[in-house]
Amino acid sequence: MAYLVERLAVHGLSEAEDELVGLAADLGHLPLALAQAASYLIDLADTGLTVSQYRVLFRDRRPLAELAPDPAALPDDQETTLAVVLRLSLNRADQHTAGLATPLLQLTSLLDPPGIPASVFTTSRAIIYLTVSRASQSTAARTDESAPDGYIGSISGPVSTVAGTEVLNALRHLHRFSLVSYSPGTPTMSAVVRVHALTQHAAYDTVPPAFRGSLARAAGAALLEAWPEPEQSAVASMLRASTFRLNDAAGDALWDPDYEPNVLLKAGTSLGDAGQYTAAADFFTGLQATAARHFGRDDHFTLRARHHQASWRGEAGDAAGAAQALAGLLEDRVRVLGPDDPNALATRQNHARYVGEAGNVGEAVRLLEDLLPLQLSVLGPDHPQVLVTRNYLATWEEDPGQALYLHEQLLADEIRIFGPDDPKVLTTRENIAHCARAAYDGEATLAALEALLSDQLRILGPDHPNVLATQSDLALHLGDTQTASTKLKELLDHQRNALGSAHPRTLVTRHKLIKLRSELHAAPSPVSDYEELLHDVQRVFGHDHPNTLTARHSLAYSRHKAGDTQRAVSELEDLLNHVKTIPAPTELVVGIIVTLTDCKTFGSGP
């Protein structure tokens, strides 16, 4: 009662208490329905429409909505109530927007309720859907007065293309009728559309089942078109959420022999790019199974999903498993596409990468050196795949001076091709800083990292994994150990919030912080910290990953420093025997041997 009285009074309207009580009862006291009814009454205030007359309209519409109710959808008769109130409000909004409100609200019905970038609805793909839908509904209204709400049929007569300004005007009217919440953009924030989940449900019910596939595919194409390049974290997060909501809500309607749901590939890749490696791998595991069911195991889309799954599996820490999966995929791609197909070449490249990530750098370099001439002949020197191969070869170059030279040559080409703000350029600049560190040039490293971080924050945002990695590297070059330790602790808290405790970069920062605190003697013994770290690292990376082997090395050394040299020697000998059976970085193997020798030579103590 208080809500209705106050809302109507703002617009100079008043009604008898018994009519307001009756309206609330008619609407089942459902807040969403009350808001939409109040908006309807306010819009028609100048016509003299009363609450009593609105209740008549509601009752006249109600029997039609009860003809085919869905008893499992909403309790307490809310389904019927919402359907009636929605239709009344939508019809009025359509009068203000030349019939655009209904198809626009239908387009929101499959997306994420808490926030949809408004740019989705002004994409060319959304404009096509809205144009066709509005025209077909207009035709239906002229030729078949019994056509259901939301009918999409044949089109007769000239078609007027919907303009972007019309879409924004329609969003404003949907907001006015409490059907959506529309927040126009500002220089620092994108325009956002929010829609109540119950409104979505009622709006989707106005779409005939035969046309829900068209709606789902139009929504997917619009989301993909709206994706910013390079990604903006806030917008990308909303687009991912809408894509996952679309995938869940549309189900098989999203899959069609003549349509590839590439927005699903984009959302999964975006999830991984945001640092959620395990979630991305899990998403693509499900996607490849669904694609195989709809399109077949050898279909191009299915093979792409397999490629992404294996790659994010490697990013999540299972480099050996990724290499094995990519080897199997390579056989299938060569069989289906041929050895010179760019997709087959991309799989060869990623296979070589994860062979190296798993520890067999020599074999990875050999594979990449065999691959590069073929890439150059098929793709040309400026193709992104060629540049990625050059990056890997420069990264795994053993001579720091030669590695720096190769990265600087690569950087010049990337800036020429992509521009200075491309994420690939930022990655190469990060690698150049690492080369300077390897050459023991502290001043050059610090300057490179500071300049890089400034540009990364501007381009990628504060929560991007690469930004956090640069902050981690920079913390170790700030001078004294106490300052570095404080900065790393702040960064670790940030990473846990932004990426999660099990994220690979979070684990790397934990390792660095434990080492620094050991040097500061901030804890009586870092042994327990290293034990907890090793447990988490093994769970994420597996037993053979270099990060796991390094954590085992650090744990054994911490036991030695704590006075338990006998156990340290035993663990180091076990570790050394293990690394002899797998591809492991030479630097790590040498470090284990040196530590083991020190333990045996000097006994307890560092």
Instruction: Work out the helix count.
Output: 28
Strand arrangement within the widest β-sheet reads: 1-3-2
Mean pLDDT: 86
| Biggest pleated sheet | 3 strands, antiparallel
Structural class: mainly alpha
Please provide a written account of the structure.
The chain has 606 residues and is an all-alpha fold. It has 28 helices and three strands. It has helices spanning 2-9, 17-26, 31-43, 51-65, 78-96, 101-108, 124-143, 164-176, 197-204, 212-226, 233-250, 262-273, 277-295, 300-315, 319-337, 342-357, 361-379, 384-395, 400-418, 423-438, 442-460, 465-475, 481-498, 504-520, 527-541, 546-561, 565-579, 586-602, and strands spanning 116-117, 181-183, 192-194. The protein has a three-stranded antiparallel β-sheet with strand order 1-3-2. A hairpin with an 8-residue loop joins strand 2 (181-183) and strand 3. Helix 5 packs across helix 9 (197-204), helix 10 (212-226) packs across helix 12 (262-273) and helix 21 (442-460) packs antiparallel against helix 22 (465-475). It is elongated and about 95 Å long. The chain starts with a helix and ends with a helix.
Quick structural summary:
Helices cover 70% and strands 1% of the residues.
Features:
single chain, 606 residues, mainly alpha, three-stranded antiparallel β-sheet, 3 strands, 1% strand
